[in-house]
Every structure is written in structure tokens, then in C-alpha cells.
Amino acid sequence: MIDDFCKQLVAQHPESVGGWVLRVTQGKQASEPQGWQLLDRELSSAPLHADSVVLLPQAESASILHLEFQTRPDRLIAERMLEYWIRLHRRFHKPIQQVVIHLKPTTSPLARIEQLKVGGTQHQFSNLRLWEQDPEPLLADPALLPLAVLARDPSRSGALLRRVGQRLAAIANPDQKRITASGCQLLAGLAFSPDVIQRLLAMSILEDSSVYQLIKRQALAEGRAEGLEEGRAEGMAEGRAEGRAEGLLQGRQNEAAGLLLRQLQRRCGPLSDQQQQLIRSMPVERLEQLGEAVLDFESAADLRSWLG
Q: Buried (b) or exposed (e) across 19-34, using 16+ Cβ within 10 A?
């Protein structure tokens, strides 16, 4: 699924992805984006499909950009890159630039291989480890936001995910926002737990969406059950709306508290009844602060100190 998404990302935005890859791996500005052409990925009669193959138009002569996305180290990657190069050369007879993009953080030396050398045969290609890359160029281009979630984030505090969520919220086109948000959540799963993704990325996207705002307005207008009955009795529409608003806020507070309690129990061990009661009584703003702090907790003592 992740490979399929990355291929689709290149297919939909070859200029953005290809331009960024060339700047990172070769330190040069790509040609003008007009005219970039996605080519057929099947490289011979015996099918061998590359992940993405893009034709780059240039003033002197066109060239081929070949991208391979890897979610895990592959000891055969150098041999495969040579085979891809041979078939690409045989078919297009143009200069070929090959880049392996490693998505998931790893310390394996296989993620640093950039050549194949066997006897007199030597083949070179570029290697890009996404978790080592500057996130700023990726954050600047909405098409590259899914890749930004896996870029360099020294603090690992979730600040990068929060920034991605803010950029997603700024996308005006609802279809583009939905597709990009799905890609961000998919790739974020390679490096973050579902709880962290939900807290720092998914919720910020949801709350800023037009659908969420519509549901919220409808809920406020209808009122929660208790507020509705009371409003009918008193004949006050305003009371119904306020009652529903209070119910929404309480529901969000309960959901956030439950999520945090599960995180804390995995990281700090069992919590006392007093600690659980204190956390469940916290307002949403205080729960958000605790949610950020829990990423740095290593023991139950850290939680006691924070609560104290």
C-alpha cells in the first residue's frame, strides 16, 4: 500500500517529487516543470516494473529520472538498480539518473549502498534516506507533505507532525486536502504510533475540515438530549445550543483523557486511582500539554513529577 501511494504521488506530482529529489541528490535545480512526462514503467517483454520513471525535458537533451521507494533494507537493491538501468537504457537511450528513496528510519548499512561492484562491472546510483532530509522544502510544497512526516525531526517531539497538520489545514481544495491527508497518515505510520498520529495529525485535520465544522454547527443547533428537553421546557433555543456545545466539549475531554491514560499506562506502568481521577478531571488544554510531555516520559517518576 505504501509503495502504491508513493508511485501515485510521483504520477500526480512528477515535477514536485522529481525536482526535490534532484536538488537533494545532485545539488542542482531541475529544469522547468512544464513538459515533465511520466513514462511506462514496464521495462521489457518479461515484466519488470520500476516504481516511477519520469522523462525530464532539458535544453540540450532529455534525461530519465528513475525512483525506487524502499520501506525496508534490501540486500539485492544494487543488483536490481543495475537491471533497471540496463532495461531503461535499452528502451530510451537517454541519460539515466537513479535514486533509491528509503522511507522508514533504519540503521542498516543496506540503506547506504550506492553502487554495485562485481569484477569489472561497476554501477552507481544515488541513495536518499528521508529521515535525514531537511523538512522545510517538503513543508513548502503541498504535494510533498506526505514525505515531510518522515523528514528530519531531531526532537522527535511530534512538532513536525503538528506543522504538517497546520499545512494540511491551509489547503483550500477539499479533494486535495483529503488525498494529501490520507497520504500523510499512511506514511506517518512507518515512524509513529497510531496514538501519536491521531493526537498530532488526524485530529487537527478533522477539526479544521469543512465537514467537521458542518457537523459541529448542526450539533450545536440540535442540542444534546438533555439540553433539548430543557430547552423545550423553557422554550429557549439558545439553551439547547449551549447544552449541545457543552456535551461536545465533554465528549472530546473524555476521549482525550482515555487516550492519554492508555499511553501513560504503556509508558509508565499502572496508574493509581488518584492519578487516573486527576487526569480524567483535567480540561482539554491541560490534557494537550500532558500529551506533549508524555513523549519524553521514561518512568512513573516522570509522571509523578509532572502531576506534582
A: bbbbebbeeeebbeee
Instruction: List beta partners, residue 128.
Output: 101
First to last CA, the chain: 45
Considering the entire predicted model, what is its pTM?
A: 0.60
Between CA 292 and CA 260 the distance in angstroms is 10
Report how far residue 44's alpha carbon sits from residue 91's, in angstroms, rounded to the nearest whole number: 8
Three-state DSSP state, 175: helix
| Contact by Cβ (8 Å): 202, 189 | no
**Per the structure block, which three cell numbers stand in for 5?**
501511494
In whole angstroms, what is the distance from residue 175 CA to residue 183 CA? 13
Q: Regarding beta strands 96-102 and 63-70, do their DSSP bridges make them parallel or antiparallel, or are they unpaired?
A: parallel
Give the integer Cα–Cα distance in Å for 283 and 249: 9
DSSP structure string for 105-158: ----GGGG--EEEETTEEEE-EEEEGGGS-SHHHHHSGGGHHHHTTS--TT-SS
CB 95 within 8 A of CB 63: yes
| Contact present, 148 and 164 (Cβ < 8 Å) | yes
pLDDT in tens, 153-211: 887 667 898 899 889 888 888 888 888 988 888 898 888 888 888 777 765 555 554 44
Please, are residues 36 and 15 in contact by the beta-carbon 8 Å criterion?
yes
Within a 13 Å sphere around the CA of 218, how many CA atoms are in the beta-carbon half? 6
Find out whether 26 and 18 touch, Cβ atoms under 8 Å. Answer: no
123 close to 78: Cβ distance less than 8 angstroms: yes
Closest to 86 measured CA to CA, from 64, 107, 105, 55: 64
- What is residue 56's predicted lDDT score, i.e. its pLDDT? 86
Closest alpha carbon to 278 in 243, 298, 306, 242: 306
Query: pLDDT digit string (tens) for 247-301?
Result: 555 666 777 777 778 778 777 888 888 888 888 888 777 777 787 777 777 778 8
